[in-house]
Automatic annotation (TrEMBL):
Protein's recorded name: Phosphatidyl-N-methylethanolamine N-methyltransferase
Residue intervals annotated with topology Cytoplasmic: 50-76, 162-185
EC number: 2.1.1.71
Membrane topology recorded in Swiss-Prot or TrEMBL: Multi-pass membrane protein
Family: Belongs to the class VI-like SAM-binding methyltransferase superfamily. PEMT/PEM2 methyltransferase family.
Gene Ontology molecular functions: phosphatidyl-N-methylethanolamine N-methyltransferase activity
The keyword Mitochondrion is annotated on this UniProt entry: yes
Catalyses which reaction(s): a 1,2-diacyl-sn-glycero-3-phospho-N-methylethanolamine + S-adenosyl-L-methionine = a 1,2-diacyl-sn-glycero-3-phospho-N,N-dimethylethanolamine + S-adenosyl-L-homocysteine + H(+); a 1,2-diacyl-sn-glycero-3-phospho-N,N-dimethylethanolamine + S-adenosyl-L-methionine = a 1,2-diacyl-sn-glycero-3-phosphocholine + S-adenosyl-L-homocysteine + H(+)
Annotated source species: Pleomassaria siparia CBS 279.74
Lumenal side: 1-2, 98-140
Biological processes per GO annotation: methylation; phosphatidylcholine biosynthetic process
Amino acid sequence: MAWEFVEKKTPIDAWITEYHNKLITKLFGGNSLYGCYALAVTIFSLGIIRDHIYNEALMAQPTHPLLLNPLIKYASIPIFLTGNTLVLSSMWALGVTGTYLGDYFGILMDAPVTSFPFNVTDAPMYHGSTLSFLAAAIWKGKPAGILLTVFVAVMYKIARGYEDPFTGMIYAKREEKRQGGKKAL
């Protein structure tokens, strides 16, 4: 769960250290783009480690006969494909800085993305990731993985409770500045 720890705990830290104090930007000589890219590499790398740990944990758990049924196992394929389509297409639509907290660095998008997958779900990365965890658990026949998926979904919901309003505030401030004739953040 390293990705969730970094991305979902760190936004609280990022709100304080990056958005307010520009700590990461300062570490990169005042270049917010480099700071955002460094955070992106960190989050992506920790996501790979998270996935490895998740898979290792699943392999150490018992299987359930019902989940070993071929119909149920193969039902995980469209779940996995849907999850990965949501994640990858949202990354494509948002780009690196939109995906990896660029708005905390003052790198804002011109307008909200409303095309696919955002016209299907308001949180395609979170929902897609959750579906991918679920698919892996079903494919491997591991009830513990299904319980971990529920835990991940709850953590994502909690994170969004903080992240969505904060991101909304960032864009609202930019809009206030635009309405006042001032430049964006």
